[in-house]
Design a protein that fits this description.
16 helices; elongated
Amino acid sequence: MYKKFEMELAGRPLRVDVGRVGKQANGAVLMHYGDTVVLSTATASEKPREGIDFFPLSVEYNERLYSVGKIPGGFQKREGKASEKAVLTDRVIDRPMRPLFPKDYRNDVTLESLVMSVDQDCSPELTAMLGSAIATSISDIPFDGPIATTQVGLVDDEFVFNPTAEQKANSDMELTVASTKEKVIMIEAGANEVPEDKMIEAIYAAHAMNGTVIDFIDTIVAECGKPKHAYESCEIPAELFAEIKKIVPEEEMEVAVFTDEKQVREENIRSIKDRLQEAFAENEEWLKVLDEAVYQYQKKTVRKMILKDHKRPDGRQIDEIRPLAAETDLLPRVHGSAMFTRGQTQICTVTTLAPLSEAQRLDGLDEAETSKRYMHQYNFPSYSVGETRPSRGPGRREIGHGALAEKAIIPVLPSESEFPYAIRAVSETFESNGSTSQASVCASSMSLMASGVPIKSAVAGISAGLVTGETENDYIVLTDIQGLEDFFGDMDFKVAGTHKGITAIQMDIKIHGLTRPIVEEAIRNTKKARTFILDEVMNKCIAEPRPEVGQYAPKIIQMEIDPAKIGEVVGQRGKTINTLIERCEVKIDINDEGRVSICGVNKEDMEEAKRLISIIVTDYEAGQVLEGTVVSIKDFGAFIEFAPGKEGMVHISKISKERIDKVEDVLTLGDHVKVVCLGKDKMGRMSFSIKDVK
């Protein structure tokens, strides 16, 4: 039966239609936020997927260009591969939802959101996040929700909830917070060096707003929610654990995992598995779940060591950072390069500079963002973790890590007028054992400085982890988690920023939320670690941007012209500007405000292009002397080109002080001559004289 629920959210109407569409899904809602409309559904398979040891959750955020009145480009005229923004939205929906499903649930679950109409002041991403939470909460799928999500901006030092397009354009922060009624469960942020205390205040202002939305969702669930279905538990038999501990005592497992060498630890575990497989060779049911049992045994061992004994697998103190190293200029012919190493995590970032015309064009639902000049891409090859698999292009994780580093760096980039370049930074993962995304922030900051990009400040990133006990106050926050602590811990809290403040946050957790003391401690600890990395490692490697771009980078000079003169520089069908480009061997970009960027390798050629453009856009008056080339000879005189597309005429009587019968007696095509401007003739053409040049 169709039911409609409404509330006001951040000054705009939010409406949820239940039972109107998608009735065969386990849960479906048609969300209306302002004029934004998103269909969110939650479906689950009837039976668990066999042979897996994880929860198979898929999140799909599907953009339709009809939602903003566009037809897709290309031959197919239909949407193809998901945009990067859609992939990032998938991840933001996945991260707070996943921990709230039962850990032993193995049924396939798909959360799908279809964007059908977009009001630029009412975020379709936020609408989809809320829709996914509501659809799952009213479904019969086991889920420990509901949750709600709020976006926060910072305009004129005031918080703005679920900001409009105009507010986003003027905001110093783009924060997304998901939470249950009691705890924060996901944080995603980009910020213009926002202080830690201000960020914490914003997080909990969003959490309070989420509480009002959850109250609204509770009314929907109470009226429309289905009873949760039963499912087959995939828990490891207690008897198997008991037998494993007889063969491999807890002390032996501690020794096996207590090493900072990933390869040594993996070999130790491999040896233990071999013994257990031999011992349980007659029990096929136990062999099927042995890998998961050993994984859980490791997890319990590591968590006990950290929480009870304050021991970390690699022997570090709780707040100690792994050994660090940094260097620049690894690659001789690129525009800039830097490598950052933290323990067994190693990233090399390469920077490439290009004219603004090579900025990435975007074709999505956000009408305010049609291109971006800074592109950060992250690659994670299998050899970085000692594995072998074919490369199939970037997955969602790679896209997410690249976007996080991009978000961290953007606040310190110079403006286009200060530095008129498109910038591409590519982070190559050489070795991985935890927090490669934050290592890529460090490497990228140094690489940009090495390439001569005048960033405002260096940016560093670090990740904090968490291990919790039985009670709310029984926990330990870890600084700089390695892979094992990430796998077996409860949190990966990534924070990047400068000395001044935070530029990016991404928080993933595996439990049902964080208390405020944990969030505050994680932010304080990452601030301390970030400061150490900046002062003791990065700044000692490269303290400030180089004064100019490198030898092999393109050089760019800028000039301003009257926007009304742009057509004269471009010429009919681009003839004039193409002539300039060919003659001077440069690239030329002109924006609508009349800013001209001239890009080239040879400075003399670039200056010549600038000189010619200045000539083209100047309105010459009588008495000014110019140089030009004879491009046409007529009976009555000659035409002199003094810049591409700009010509004037010298009458035969103005060529020589002596009388001449033919123009050809004095001038030949291609001659370079000096002329003085006489003004414009009756036909509006520039009139020149050669004989009156002084």
